[in-house]
Amino acid sequence: MDLISQSREGDIVTLTLTVPTMAPAFFAECERRFTELSADASLRAVVVRSSAKGFSYGLDLPKAMGAWGPVMTGGGLAPKRAELRALIRQLQRSFTAIAACPVPVIAAVHGACLGGGVDLIAACDIRVASADAVFGVRETRIAIVADLGSLQRLPPIIGPGHTRELALTGRDIDATRAREIGLVTQVAADRDGVWAAAQAVAAEIAANPPLTVRGVKQVLDYSAGKSVDDGLAYVASWNAAFLASEDLAEAATAFAQKRPPKFTGR
User: Fold this and answer.
1) Does some domain include residue 26?
2) Contact 36/103 with Cβ under 8 angstroms?
3) What is the Cα–Cα distance from 61 to 116, expressed in whole angstroms?
4) Residue 76 has pLDDT above 90, yes or no
């Protein structure tokens, strides 16, 4: 059974987590899926959801210990420590592949989203949640410094203070609090509602000029952590190269003709 199932409707792909925890094989599958999607020029948006009881409880610790126990907990000098570091870097690539996807990725969260689940959604562009969603950076409570992206990606999303509070206490927050601090943008009534909300956001994005959407994401990613002037210089160069397009002409024509535009990505 695939740990992540994939379906497509038009230009939008939906990835569904089929199990509630992340076994060792999950990470390679996640990286593979997003690497393949990133190469698809016709793709316009990705939705990530879960068919399990909760979105994700994070790392399947018993299976991880079975696969990596000697590396994770064993003694040894530099060679063993280097092996552990290489393993961590390998796992990090799974969620970096999400962040690097050239099209927007929307996470639809219901139920528990803990540990590695937060690492995953932090790598997405937009997060929506159901009213029963619970979020927690719990690694601290099991003697692990969160190492798959939460500590790096959450501060720009929710701010350094909220990130430190979540990570240092290991406490859980509900969907209402998650929206208050900016972790999620919408809260739906239930799982079906949050799936529908995520698909609606994806459809709204997919209706825009696809190369422009990719450009917006790239400019935002480039500008993160840089000065305003650096970001402005980058977007000026971007538009100097890509502003002229058939989609720009179509937008102007559709406006004049008072009809919805039909963008082709040319």
Assistant:
1) yes
2) no
3) 11
4) no
